Amino acid sequence: MKANRNSILGIAAAAFAIVAIPAHAADVVYEQPPAPPAAPMPVAPVATWAGPYAGVALGYGFGGNTEVDDGVVITEIDTDGFVGNAFAGWQGQSGSFVYGVEGDVGYNGMDGSNAGIDTEGGVDGTLRARLGFAATEDVLIYGTAGGAVGRHEVSIGGASDNQTHWGWTAGVGTDVKLTPNTFARLEYRYTDFGSETYEIGGADFDVDASNHKVLVGFGVSF
Fold this sequence. Notes:
Elements: H1 2-26, E1 51-69, E2 74-94, E3 97-108, E4 111-114, E5 117-134, E6 139-156, E7 159-179, E8 182-200, E9 203-221
Antiparallel strand pairs: 1-2, 1-9, 2-3, 3-5, 4-5, 5-6, 6-7, 7-8, 8-9
């Protein structure tokens, strides 16, 4: 009887263990896996192009055309030569959009001659608006347009006259930062100086001048 009782107790204990284990497992609380990290918030571009700046540029003028009209014959004179200027401006920046104003004063060394008529440029300058896109924090691509003024001289035989021409200019370029406060520039511009009347040797001549320029410059921002 005692052996049978021990067997019964063993079977009962085993049955209790089988029932208790699932019940205990049901009471286990599993921890939730950690949430994935939040996506980084977009960061607005740093306004690296905002503020005043100044610099110098040198280049070459080509494809210049000066038309001298004496009322009977129009003489076209091709001009080219070295050019240069000092420039200064101010820019604001909103995101990647850059806007501002720039002025320059320089010398136009383009000259040429045809049919006994000589022409050459002189001091010139511009005042322009600039609109650009900051492709990166270090590269600015821009367009520019505004007014232009320049001195020109026309000589026929031993007589000559100088006049100031007023016109317009437009172009495109890129500024590339070399350091946080310095940049290099490559720019192309077309300028139409319009027409002025010259008095040479007692006769009047209508003179129209235009040119193309490619400039390489260096600037400092403040």
